[in-house]
């Protein structure tokens, strides 16, 4: 493959980007498909505002009150929810959450409005 044939997979720049970059309070960056984040009203409004303003910036959301270990768990939940709501299942397993994180995850859910 020569250097002119660079493969890209959706990216996270512009209104039609497939991914969004979530940045935790401790600076970690997590890339996740935008369609998985629709669970969050906060993220949905951020993306909508960016589209209305017709900005071609990178689709990124910084969360100053959510640490990386919580943001990873939130992204796992987004993916879990998207998987189990997009298919027909007789039973849906319970999403596993460590009891020690429950309070912090509730705080994150309030910020993200999920």
Helix-residue proportion: 25-40%
Tell me the total number of β-strands: 3
How many helices does DSSP assign? 3
- State mean pLDDT (0 to 100 scale): 87
Shape: globular
Strand order of the largest sheet: 2-1-3
Q: In this structure, how is the largest beta sheet organized?
A: 3 strands, mixed
Main structural class: alpha+beta
Hey, roughly how much beta strand do the residues contain?
Answer: 5-15%
Radius of gyration from the alpha-carbon trace, in angstroms: 16 Å
Order of helices and strands: EEHEHH
Low-confidence stretches: none
Measured distance between first and last alpha carbons:
43 Å
Organism: Argiope bruennichi (Wasp spider)
Keywords: Nucleus
Protein name: Elongin-C
Family: Belongs to the SKP1 family.
Could you explain the architecture of this structure?
The protein is an alpha+beta fold. Helices cover 36% and strands 11% of the residues. It has a three-stranded mixed β-sheet, covered by helices on one side. It starts with 18 loop residues before the first strand and ends with a helix. The relative contact order is 0.18. It holds the Pfam family Skp1_POZ. Its main location: nucleus.
């Amino acid at each position: 493959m020569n250097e002119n044939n660079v493969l890209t997979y959706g990216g996270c720049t512009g209104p039609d980007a497939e991914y969004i970059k979530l940045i935790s309070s401790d600076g970690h960056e997590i890339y996740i498909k935008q369609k998985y984040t629709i669970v969050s009203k906060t993220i949905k409004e951020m993306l909508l505002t960016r589209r209305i303003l017709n900005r071609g910036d990178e689709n990124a959301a910084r969360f100053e009150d959510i640490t990386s270990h919580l943001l990873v768990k939130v992204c796992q939940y987004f993916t879990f929810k998207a998987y189990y709501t997009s298919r027909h299942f007789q039973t849906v397993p319970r999403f596993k959450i460590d009891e020690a994180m429950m309070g912090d995850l509730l705080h994150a859910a309030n910020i993200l409005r999920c």
